[in-house]
Design goal:
The protein is elongated and about 95 Å long. The strands form six sheets. A nine-stranded mixed beta sheet has the order 5-4-3-6-7-9-8-10-11, sandwiched between helices. A four-stranded antiparallel beta sheet has the order 13-20-16-18. Helix 1 (30-39) runs parallel beside helix 8 (153-165) and helix 6 (104-115) packs across helix 7. Helix 7 links the parallel strand 3 (122-125) and strand 4. It has a domain at 363-550. It is an alpha/beta fold.
Length: 553
């Protein structure tokens, strides 16, 4: 086959002479591109609109040789029309609609997953572009009806041409509209939602749609940030249109895994969307040709609630087809986390039956008081009632000296933890606390960064007692200690909280294993020899699974 290239003012030839002699005779303009699309049968696909007709009226004449070459490439699974469009309309021009076309390797990997999941009656691409997902899905799943939604009439015409040239016109429809606004008729079978939702930043979005996002999220018991990009809207719109048994795969920028305004997607993933798997693609793989960005492919099935979520991270696009490399993370762990991208990174391989500590337990750093000389009880707080004084681990050495367990809370200092609502206190206690607060103010307890960023500057809000405590910074391996005294802990320690109610022998053996095996080299060493174990690093420590711990391994 002749190598067909869409390059302005470039002459290409085959044995029959020139195919493209200039940008007027070839595909050097959008008007020529429209002419080729119409010649390929774009009008045969249902949904042709007046806006598309207006563009079609401007079409320029092109040679049949060009049309034939384009048809051949489409039949071979390529997208010469989409490639030409991206060269003619530069990224800066397409940015307002968030139009970034997806490489074929990614499209095929997502379609293969879908074909192996269920047999859809219908395939819906919410931002169809030139129709790459629909044509690939139509070839792989020949029984499915194909529906594309596109807001820009130019790529909509190209999508129609690709579908027609691929022999799929009779089962296809392209709707020129906003995906958020349309309704989809019911079908007798599952719908596959698949595609690359447009990426448009929040400051380019209309205020009425921001109101729509907030209102629709609230109806479903969620909150939505006005800083969310357009791809977040498409996740919510899909939940609104889908029914139980529908499934899908979307590729988007990966930022929703970590940022605050991605919390709606994370909540939908664990809830109504029925998230099953996330694959993160590193920027080195160039998932989006127009942007150096990390991408995330989100796989879901409406109504699903798997106990474990599959996570994967790839550095090359050909790794998308490899079945290995998945991590399985308990959904409770995702529910407890505000940032997810670190969970996609594969830890060290361990013996059979070993898992990461984070699969068994959450790890939380202790509370910051903001001013220890005020909030650790002393001579200045002698008249305070016992109800606001809590035995607390306030020094790392208290854990190093405790041995296997803290059994007696009386050896610990106490931290003052006042309620946010002081009105809940009885009159006598309230007077004592008011006098203490005068002293606290005189010492500057209300003016520091921590205090001014708390809900109430006087309320430290200690964490609940953790069954297991560990130090996190020292020149020696961390101490792991049973907290039988139910002491609280400050930020010199981490609390280890089991995700479920494990039997006592399992927790006993877990502490024994951690004390024996965790080495200082597993942490992060700083100048001066100090080694730090952040909560996420502690969660990545490999430990025996519950079955092995129950046997004392």
């Amino acid at each position: 086959m002749t190598q067909f290239s869409i390059t302005h003012r470039r002459v290409l030839s085959d044995r029959n002479g020139p195919i493209i002699a200039s940008e007027c005779e070839g595909l050097g303009s959008e008007k020529a591109l429209i002419a080729v699309a119409i010649a390929l049968g774009a009008r045969a696909v249902a949904g042709w609109s007046s806006a598309e007709e207006k563009l079609a009226s401007q079409a320029e004449q092109v040679s049949q040789a060009v049309v034939a070459e384009v048809r051949n490439r489409i039949e071979a699974g390529e997208d010469p029309l989409g490639e030409a469009f991206c060269k003619m309309r530069l990224p800066a021009e397409r940015r307002s609609n968030g139009a970034t076309f997806t490489p074929r390797t990614i499209v095929n990997a997502m379609v293969e997953w879908a074909a192996g999941t269920a047999a859809p009656k219908r395939i819906v691409d919410p931002g169809t572009g030139s129709g790459r997902y629909l044509t690939a899905g139509g070839r792989r799943i020949p029984q499915a009806a194909l529906v594309g939604i596109e807001i820009d009439p130019m790529p909509a015409i190209l999508a129609r041409a690709n579908l027609a040239a691929s022999g799929m016109a009779e089962r296809s429809e392209v709707i020129l509209d906003d995906y958020r606004a349309i309704s989809l008729p019911p079908v007798a079978g599952p719908t596959l939602f698949i595609g690359n939702p447009p990426y448009v930043r929040h400051h380019q979005l209309d205020s009425r749609w921001k109101t729509w996002l907030s209102d629709e999220a609230t109806k479903r018991g969620h909150s939505a940030s006005q800083l969310a990009g357009l791809h977040v809207y498409f996740f919510l719109a899909t939940v609104r249109k889908a029914t139980k048994g529908d499934f899908g795969a979307f590729i988007t920028a990966a930022e929703w895994l970590d940022v605050n305004y991605g919390s709606l997607v994370r909540e939908l993933f664990l809830g109504e969307l029925g998230g099953k798997r996330i694959v993160v693609i590193e920027p080195t793989a160039v998932p989006f040709p127009d942007a150096a960005s990390t991408a995330a492919i989100t796989y879901f099935q409406i109504g699903a609630k798997p106990k474990r979520i599959k996570l994967k991270r790839v550095e090359r696009l050909n790794e998308l087809k490899e079945p290995n490399g998945n991590r399985e993370v308990r959904r409770e762990r995702l529910e407890a986390e505000k940032r997810w991208s670190h969970l996609t990174r594969t830890g060290k391989d361990g013996p059979e039956g070993y898992i990461e500590l984070g699969e068994l337990c959450r790890v939380h750093r202790g509370q910051v008081t903001g001013l220890n000389k005020v909030w650790i009880a002393g001579a200045h707080s002698q008249e305070l009632p016992e109800s606001v004084l809590f035995p607390t681990v306030t020094r790392a050495r208290e854990l190093f000296q405790a041995g296997n367990a803290i059994e007696n809370a009386s050896i610990l200092r106490k931290v003052i933890d006042l309620p946010v609502e002081l009105d809940v206190l009885d009159a006598a206690d309230r007077k004592k606390i008011d006098r203490f607060l005068v002293t606290a103010r005189s010492l500057g307890a209300n003016t520091g960064y921590v205090a001014t960023n708390r809900k109430a500057w006087w309320s430290v809000r200690l964490r609940a007692p953790a069954p297991i405590l560990t130090t996190y910074m020292a020149r020696r391996p961390p101490a792991f200690v049973h907290n039988w005294a139910l002491a609280r802990h400050l930020n010199i320690a981490h609390g280890i909280y089991p995700r479920e109610a494990f039997a006592k022998p399992i927790l006993d053996n877990l502490v024994i294993y951690l004390r024996k095996t965790v080495q200082v080299t597993q942490g992060r060493t700083y100048a001066g020899g100090l080694t730090k174990f952040e909560p996420r690093e502690v969660e990545r420590i490999l430990v025996p699974g519950p079955e092995l711990l129950a046997r004392g391994v």
